[in-house]
Amino acid sequence: MARKISKRVAKSREGIERNKLYPLEEAVKLLKERASAKFDETVEVAMNLGVDPRHADQMVRGVVNLPNGTGRTVRVAVFARGDKAEEAKQAGADIVGAEDLVEAIQNGEINFDRCIATPDMMPLVGRLGKVLGPRGLMPNPKVGTVTADVAGAVKASKGGAVEFRVEKAGIVHAGVGKVSFDEQAIAENVRAFADAVIKAKPSGAKGNYLKRVALTSTMGPGVKVDLSTLAAS
C-alpha cells in the first residue's frame, strides 16, 4: 500500500521543479493537471511570513471575501435573539439560538463551520471560549463574526468569506477554491487572499514580510509561486 501511494506522489511531482518559482497562472495549471483524486480536491495556499506571532504586534489575522467563492458548503451557526435571530434565519443560517445553542455546544454538538454572534450575546458566548477557541470558531469582531449585521455576516460566510490567522511558525494557509474551478477563478481567489494578508501586515513586522508562497491541492504536490506574479494585473 505504501509503495502505491509513493508511486502516485512521484507521478504527481513529475515536471515540477522543486526549487523553481512558477508564475501564478502556471502554478495553477500544473496543480489542475495533476489532480488525480476521485473527489473535487481543495486548492490551498500557504504563505510564509516574516513575523513572530508570539508577539502581539506581529499577529496577522483577518477575513477576505473570495471573488469566486470557496466551492464548499459552509454551515453557519448564529447566536442571536428576537428580530436578529429572524434576520439570521432569513439570510440562510443553518443553526440559530441562544441559551439552547450554548447547551448544545457544551454537549458536543458542533455541527457548523463558522460561528456568528450579535454583540449583546457575547457574555453568553464567552462561556464557550474553551470549546470554540481551539477550533477557531470563536466569534471575533476583528473578522466580522461579532456584528449587529447578522444577515450580512451569514451571506458573506456562505458566499466565500475566508478567515485567516498566522500560526506559530509564521505561516498562513487557507482553502481558496476547488480544482474543478477554471484557472482564472483560482488565480483571482489566490490574488485576493494574498492581497488581504499583505494589507493585514502588522506594525511589528520588520524586514521581509512576504517570504514564500506555495499552492497545493488535497492530494497533489506543492508548487512554489513567484511572488512578483501575485499582484493583481
As a whole number of angstroms, the C-alpha radius of gyration is 19 Å
What pattern of helices and strands is seen along the backbone?
A: HHEEEHEHEHHHEEHEE
List the strand order in the largest sheet: 7-1-8-9
Number of continuous helical runs? 8
Described by its quaternary structure, the protein is: single chain
**Residue share in helices?**
25-40%
Biggest β-sheet: count, sense, barrel? Answer: 4 strands, antiparallel
- Terminal CA distance reads 45 Å
Strand segment count: 9
What structural category do the secondary elements indicate? alpha/beta
Shape: globular
Runs in which pLDDT lies below 50 for 5 or more consecutive residues are: none
What is the residue-mean pLDDT, rounded to a whole number? 90
Strand content: 15-25%
Pfam families: Ribosomal_L1 (PF00687)
InterPro entries: Ribosom_uL1_bac-type (IPR005878), Ribosomal_uL1 (IPR002143), Ribosomal_uL1-like (IPR023674), Ribosomal_uL1/biogenesis (IPR028364), Ribosomal_uL1_3-a/b-sand (IPR016095), Ribosomal_uL1_CS (IPR023673)
Family: Belongs to the universal ribosomal protein uL1 family.
Protein name: Large ribosomal subunit protein uL1
